[in-house]
Amino acid sequence: LAVLDEGVRFFPRHTGLVYATAEQKVRAGLVAEARALIALGLRVASDAGTRGKFETLQAGLPAAR
Q: Contact at 8 Å (CB) between 31 and 25?
């Protein structure tokens, strides 16, 4: 995960990388970090299909506490 985090720091507009990192964070139970990455992805997504992927991932997260 550290390598993915570093990649996102260097390439925050690479939506594929941001999505993959968010997905791995969800799998690892790091929901707060995943939420931040999803928010970034939604901000930088340039097309509806990409936004939809982030929205779907966001919808599958447990409710915020």
A: yes
